[in-house]
Amino acid sequence: MHVQLALVCNEARMRADGRMDIEGVFNDLAAPGFPAKQERMVLVTTIEWDRGEQGRNTFKVDLMGPDGKSSLTIEGHTDVSPTAPHRPPPRTRLILPLEEVVFPRSGRYDFVIKVKGRKLDGPSLFVMEAAEGEHAGHAHAAGSPSDGS
């Protein structure tokens, strides 16, 4: 199994045709000070399973801060169905809305996905103090209309 897609964005949704629409992808956040709070963001990840993997799998996602400590944990499960050999391998698409996420200090934050005893790398965010004169609000995404860029 491996992570096929991993990102943080403003909004994501599945369409009726099986495709995913993603809006406002970002990798950095600017905040007026710390601790900082991001009102809303969405973690999106796709896990591609090895052929033959099936059944219910529990997962845990931790947001690891610059100090190596988890500042957020999400737990859940996914049901993996087998696919025919001539079809793509099974995939799990996760769209996880996150609200009021607190970032205690500036630095790099990494999402780590734990499933079936393995750790998989998710996306990372760099959270920084807003430059003087830059409107940042509460950890708004750098370069978004809400931070004045």
Q: What would CATH call the homologous superfamily?
A: Macroglobulin (MG2) domain
Strand content: over 45%
Q: Which CATH class applies here?
A: Mainly Beta
Radius of gyration: 17 Å
Mean pLDDT: 89
Main attributes of the structure:
11 strands; three-stranded antiparallel β-sheet; six-stranded mixed β-sheet; mainly beta; 60% strand; Immunoglobulin-like; 149 residues
Describe the structure.
This protein has one domain: Sandwich (Immunoglobulin-like), CATH 2.60.40. The relative contact order is 0.30. With 149 residues, it is an all-beta fold. The strands form 3 sheets. It has a 6-stranded mixed beta sheet, with no helix packed on it. The C terminus is likely disordered. It is built from no helices and 11 strands.
Topology (SSEs and partners):
Elements: E1 2-9, E2 11-14, E3 20-23, E4 28-31, E5 36-48, E6 55-64, E7 70-80, E8 91-103, E9 107-115, E10 118-129, E11 140-141
Parallel strand pairs: 4-10
Antiparallel strand pairs: 1-5, 2-3, 4-11, 5-8, 6-7, 6-9, 9-10
Task: Write a concise synopsis of the structure shown.
The chain is mostly beta strands and 149 residues long. It contains no helices and 11 strands.
